Amino acid sequence: MKAPAPDRVEGALEPVRAELLRAARAEAVDLLARADRDATALLERARAEARALVEDARREGQAQGAAAGRVIRARARRTARARELTARREAYEELGRRATDHVRKLRRTADYTLLLERLTRHARRLLGPDAETTVHSGGGLVAHAAGRRVDCTLDALAARALDRLGAEAESLWAP
After folding, report:
1. Which of 64, 65, 138, 174 shows a CA-CA span of 20 to 30 A to 101?
2. What three-state secondary structure class fits 174?
3. pLDDT at 175 (0 to 100)
4. What is the DSSP string of 29-53?
């Protein structure tokens, strides 16, 4: 058997070669189309994941911001309350100082002797007629009897008067 001539072999293989080339091109087109679809899908998934991550980060940021805001507001309320209480305490102390100063001025009035007599009667009503009274250097008096003591100093009287005002004293500086 004789080998066919090379140009005849090539001619005979031409349809096979053309079909292989066409199939390769079709497969390449198909592969490129699939690669484009895969790339598009991958990009869309990446974009969706990025959107989800951004949304999660936004929600987390809002939650953290809200929590930080609550902490700041609570701290501000505590600070404001502390300042208010400090101002009230200072106002109450100032009222006490002024009341005490005002009552101490009674020592320099013409009626001071009558006040001492009234305080002596009051102390003896509380402790009995044998109570010993001593005029206090700051004004008023102190009485003693049978192991008991009554403080009728001007400072003590002013403090008790202020205590009797109680919460009503706050109305003096409340808006």
Report:
1. 174
2. coil
3. 66
4. HHHHHHHHHHHHHHHHHHHHHHHHH
